[in-house]
Known about the structure:
Number of strands: 24
Shape: globular
CATH class of the largest domain: Alpha Beta
Helix content: 25-40%
CATH superfamily of the largest domain: P-loop containing nucleotide triphosphate hydrolases
Mean pLDDT: 95
Structural class: alpha/beta
Strand content: 15-25%
Distance between the termini: 14 Å
Largest sheet: 12 strands, mixed
Radius of gyration: 23 Å
Amino acid sequence: MKSDIEIARSAKLEDIYSIAKKAGINKDEVISWGDYKAKISLKIFNRIKSNNDGKLILVTTLNPTPEGEGKTTMTIGLAQALTKLGKKTMLCIREPSLGPIMGLKGGAAGGGYSQVLPMEDINLHFTGDMHAITSAHNLLASLLDNHVHHGDAFHIDPRYIVWPRVLDISDRALRKVVVGLGGPRDGVPHEEEFAITPASEIMAILCLSEDLNDLKKRLGRVIVAYTYDNKPITASDLKAVGAMAVLLKDALKPNLVQTIEGTPAFIHGGPFANIAHGTNSLIATKMALKLADYVVTEAGFGSELGAEKFFNIVCRTGKLKPDATVLVVSIRALKRNGEGDIKNGLPNLEKHLENLSSFSVPVIVALNHFIDDKNEEIEVVENFCKSKNIPVAVADIWEQGGEGGIELAGKLVSLIHNNPSKFHYLYDINASVKEKIETIAKKMYGAGRVVYTVTAERDIKLCEELGLDKLPICIAKTQYSLSDDAKCLGKPEGFKITVREIKFSAGAGFLVPMTGKITTMPGLPAKPTSENIDINDEGNISGLY
């Protein structure tokens, strides 16, 4: 069997104008980024705004192994399978981050015969969106420090500068640093944090904005620091909004590419799901819904993270109504959650099905087939799903592409048409901050109680004073467990969740309770994937997969 990168290189790509035509996008709405990539002008909405919306399908998973369960690959394969069934389909997924690519997981453009292409471009610098977001974020940090250096008219308390800097590389040494050392000419010394770019509030803002005007309004609300009398200082106060918007003007436009089988795909935005909301941009999803009959998107990690945030934050912000959910399951993830025994891992699957039922969206289980899966193991999963009256399909989309997902696609179409979605949110947006946090922790995680540090209690009081307490909640939590302890596998119950602090994403429009040992700047593993990445004299890249 060929490797992913060999399969990608052997594929014959269609030119981007052909892909655009297939999606219903006119040539004058395409901003070419080479032969096989393009940005799509937002003026397209003037033409398609009266179109009916297609069916929205969310792909999520259970608590994963560190290697991942092939959720992105399944999302791509499902879109291809729906296309094979004659359905006009578009794919919407996130842009990969260089942090995981150079760290543990490697490339993030799917795999086998379910990939998005051109794979190497998508995995690396793509169309520059990540760099634009990094630049806009760090411009604001620079303007803040510059203001303090030149007299500090706002009387900012340097102990309460809350705007970090960002970098799209995993670098644990930058989590806590001091800047401004060297004397009066080099700024005012203060503690600083670095986060990875997908954790930036600018990333969240870009992915939740409706258009340029909405982007600018959200940028203006970003809180960067507090004065000595606890007054918040915003990007608008620092007159940063215009310049930041200019840096983001192209990044706001969705990126169009194709799957290995020629299905049109938007890849736009990349917030992490364990520290941000974990879904591609609303602009891309809404554009796809006006262009296609079926739109397949994904939310990062498990139902208690990406899916919960998609339903409660993204759908609330964008007024979306999902029509179905696909829960990706792998034998190896069930074994991990069952400490080696697949049957002991089934309660984890059961909890994720329970979570999804809380939103009244029809669900189907997609068993991602790996080469070493045994028939008797597959039967255990199938029998379990049948006992719960949940449709299930085995999908071999890595080896067979869309053809390997035909059963899944067929059952999904039937599910959507025979079981209309009755989607609703998990909590009332007007509930108190603690009520919203505890609803998520108890209903989605299975926690018995939530405890708050002194810092978190102070944060809650402050957000109430600032009128931010009616925002939705975006809990930062490990993806490897339903709890806030990555080593607590399976289906734990009655445990304690500890909220260390709450970060205010006033521009994005949500609050971020920080739990467990989660950090917004990941570190590299002992043997990072980057050690295997290389390029030869002919320009061929190796090691991305």
